Structure formats: structure tokens, C-alpha cells
Amino acid sequence: MLNYFYPLIIAFFVALLVTPLVKRLAYKVKAVDKPAARKVHHKLMPRLGGLAICVGFWTAVLLTQELTMEIYALLGGGLLIILVGLRDDIKGVSPKTKLLVQVLAACIVLAAGVRVNFMTHPINGVIDLGYLGYPLTVLWIIGVTNAVNLIDGLDGLAAGVSAIAAVTLGIVSLIEGVTAMAFIPFILAASILGFLKYNFHPAQIFMGDTGSLFLGFNLATIAIIGLTKSATVISLFLPIVILGIPIMDTLFAIIRRYHNGKPIFCADKDHLHHRLLALGLSHRHTVLAIYGVSLLLGVSAVLMALVTTAQGMLIMVVTTLGVFIGAERVGILRGRDLKDAKHKKAYNTVAK
Predict the structure, then answer these.
(1) Which residues fall in the annotated binding site?
(2) Under-50 pLDDT residues of the chain
(3) Which end of the chain is more exposed for a tag (fewer CB within 10 A), N or C?
């Protein structure tokens, strides 16, 4: 039994012990986050925390796991992501450069044979994607990588949501029979939890792009390896449900900005965490509320993997409807005006 927990213990304690060292390094190289109009902190904060997550994760994987081509691809692509994240946190990197590095990282994954090979649907069963699987894999990895980056707006938010998603990926991988890869997301979650001690509100350090991009890339890649080998209809939807918070928040941002006639890449203060803060929740309660939604999505994904296809599709439909109703209620879809004076004041001072 100890052999199962050994990798998790290594990942957790390495991240836990390395984080204070990374904090000192961040101040030394001036990798600090300054207060700004869309941010919730009031002082300089070190932002290389993702490096501690990476060190914890890689140490446990390299010491305890069988190094297959898929694992090498995960580590190799992750190395590129970490390098561009470090550069961005210290000096700044243009969006085009970050995108290029993400494409290169995705190509490393493709070169190892990790890709979406088919899609499934209830009518004709399996559809072989052929060469179309290559661009779809790249788009999936880039999309999830940046989606996790977008939700990194509050202390502990991206880290906690990613940990919940990683644990869910591990559980569903075991259910789907992909046991060889199932422990990798558990190790990732353990390294996140080691870092989260310093990142939960009030945070002592931020993960920065180093962490959010690294987590997004790993979650996206692990989802392909662990959840796309089954030819069942429901397997197509499991990664989307598990990574529901970052994916839906990004999707709603696109819908909202299009509806309001704004550029899709224009930043705003109507993401889920902004809206919950504006509705009167405290910083800590906002993060915990989003954790709760992530847990519900995780439970839904596990149930979908356990039940029949028809039952799984029903759970998927109910979950999707619930997400859209909830999004409309808190104003994520339209970025609606807050007529209540108290809430309007909270909204206007969310990032001050």
C-alpha cells in the first residue's frame, strides 16, 4: 500500500519544501506581480510558484514511474511550457511567442503518438479522425492551457481547481482501465497541494504563468492519454466535464464579449470569480464556491464513467443545463449591470 502513496508523498513534500526557496528566487530576479486595475492584491507578490509545482511533479515522476514515450512527451512539452512561463514571469513574453511555444509543446506530444484518434457519437459509433486528429489535438492542448491561465485570478483558485480536475482525471482513468497513466494526475495533484499551502488566501506567492500554463498543458495532455482510448460515446465528453470550470469560463467570456460587441481577446471583469466577488462573496468564499462547482463537475464525470451510455448522456445534459443556468444567474454570459448599489460598488472595487 505504501508503494501507491510513495510518489504522492514525494510530490507533496518536494513542492512544499521548494516553494519558500522559489519565493526568495522570485524576489531576487524581480519576478513580482504589481497591483493593477484588474487584480485583487494590494502589494508586490512573487509569482514563480509554478516552478515548485513543476519540481515536485517531475521529481516524483522521474523517481517512481515507468518512463514511457508518453511520459517523455509530457515532460518534454512541459519543459518548453515552463521555460516560456519563467521568461514571461520575469521579463514578459509576447502572446505570439507564448502561442508558438505552446504549438511546439503540442507537437512534441503528437510526435510521441499522443493524439485524439477518433470521435464517437450515439448514431454511427466511432468516427476515425485521420489527419484531422493532429490539428484537433493541438487546439485542445492550446485551448486548455490558456483556459487554466485565464482562471488564475484569485489566491488558490487555479491551483485548487486544477488539483480537483487532476484527481478526477486519475479516478476516471482507473475506471476506464487506463491504469498505466492513472497515477500521473494523482502525482500532479499532490504537487499542487504542496504548493497550495502558500498560495491559498491570503497567498504568500502566486503560481504565475509558469504554473498556470504548466498545469493547463499537463491536464490537457493527461486527458488525451487517459480518456481518449475508449471507443464509448461518453468518453468524448469526460475531459470537457472534468475541466469544466476553465473551459466554460473561457467559452462564456467569448460569448459575452461577442454579445457586447467587444473584441474576443479584450480583458474584462466578468469572469466567474469577478462576478461572485461582485455579488458580495468574500475572496475566500468565492474560491471555495468555485471549488464546490469543480467538485460537482468531477462527481458528474465519475458517474458518467460508471453508468450506461444513455444514463451518462442524461447526466451530461443535466450538468450542461445547470452550468448555463448558473452562468446566467451570476451574469457571466452577458456581464449584466448590477442595479443593487451595494453590489455595484463591490463590482467597481473588485480589483482595487
Answers:
(1) 149, 209
(2) 231, 338-352
(3) N
